[in-house]
């Protein structure tokens, strides 16, 4: 993707024609008392895509922060996730919990349809039967208008290949130049599935990497900005997270420079299969 085409307003297009702001803002471990302020700062900085999950226990705070902002709901892109499945669950037994999440994320006025823009299966850990039952519930959730689109997270190629029904629009995985998961990204590219990148900043564990520091100096930016820019130029959807106002703004200030082909290739060469998240894309 060229520098001319990339801006904070850049959107990626799903296989069904719907779109999503490419740059997202993650709220993992954003605690009560901080989360709403962080989202307000993010919206002021130009973010319009907020990534949440049941597991984060702050869906209601996302709802409060976004609904109290001056940004219209129609301009926001809200994502949540679940992996809550117990043996014996059915579509009917799962739907109430999914709808509850939607209503937290979008506390709509009476008479309005609450919805999230994207609902993801958080992980494939519930096994083949559980994944499919959850996916069937997701398809029903979408049919009822509670989700504009549905997708998955932490899915390996075999999980994507065996999922029956509607094709996911997104697979959200740990993704940065130190953990590139090329088998998954290649599969997604060939099959029209957008890749979202969580932990794009490697949780700051590689901030002193000599190559990364050198490239940051070459472009006059912070290493975090280089990591986000790499992800953007790859065509991924990075989801940086911070509760520090200056860093939230800094992470969005990545559109006034471009990484050269040589710099991109050098960053590609940093692949080290270096995981910072516990999710297992190779589970049964």
Automatic annotation (TrEMBL):
Keywords: Oxidoreductase
Pfam families cross-referenced by the UniProt entry: Aldo_ket_red (PF00248)
InterPro entries xrefs: AKR, Aldo/ket_reductase_CS, NAD(P)_OxRdtase_dom_sf, NADP_OxRdtase_dom
Residues that coordinate or bind substrate: 122
Active site per UniProt: 56
Record site feature (Lowers pKa of active site Tyr), residues: 81
The keyword Oxidoreductase is annotated on this UniProt entry: yes
Entry keyword annotation includes Oxidoreductase: yes
Residue stretches making up the NADP-dependent oxidoreductase domain: 38-270
Domain of life per record: Eukaryota
Any GO MF annotation of the entry: oxidoreductase activity
Family stated for the protein in its record: Belongs to the aldo/keto reductase family.
The protein's name in its UniProt record: NADP-dependent oxidoreductase domain-containing protein
């Amino acid at each position: 993707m060229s520098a001319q085409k990339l801006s904070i307003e850049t959107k990626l297009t799903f296989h069904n024609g719907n779109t999503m702001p490419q740059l997202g803002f993650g709220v993992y471990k954003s605690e009560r008392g901080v989360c709403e302020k962080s989202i307000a700062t993010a919206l002021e900085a130009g973010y319009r895509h907020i990534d949440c999950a049941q597991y984060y226990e702050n869906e209601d705070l996302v709802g409060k922060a976004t609904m109290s902002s001056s940004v219209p709901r129609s301009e926001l892109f809200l994502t949540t996730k679940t992996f809550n499945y117990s043996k014996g669950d059915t579509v009917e037994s799962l739907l109430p919990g999914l709808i509850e999440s939607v209503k937290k994320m979008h506390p709509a006025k009476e008479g309005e349809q609450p919805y999230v823009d994207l609902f993801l299966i958080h992980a494939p850990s519930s096994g083949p039967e559980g994944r499919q039952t959850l996916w069937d519930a997701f398809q029903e959730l979408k049919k009822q208008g509670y989700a504009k689109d549905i997708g998955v997270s932490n899915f390996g190629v075999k999980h994507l290949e065996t999922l029956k029904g509607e094709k996911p629009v997104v697979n959200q995985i740990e993704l940065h130049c130190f953990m590139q998961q090329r088998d998954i990204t290649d599969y997604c590219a060939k099959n029209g599935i957008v890749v979202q990148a969580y932990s794009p900043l490697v949780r700051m564990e590689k901030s002193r990497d000599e190559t990364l520091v050198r490239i940051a100096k070459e472009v006059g930016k912070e290493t975090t900005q280089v990591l986000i820019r790499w992800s953007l130029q790859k065509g991924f959807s990075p989801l940086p997270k911070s509760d520090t106002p200056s860093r939230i703004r800094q992470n969005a200030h990545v559109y006034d420079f471009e990484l050269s082909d040589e710099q991109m290739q050098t960053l590609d060469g940093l692949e080290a299969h270096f995981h910072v998240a516990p999710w297992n894309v190779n589970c049964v």
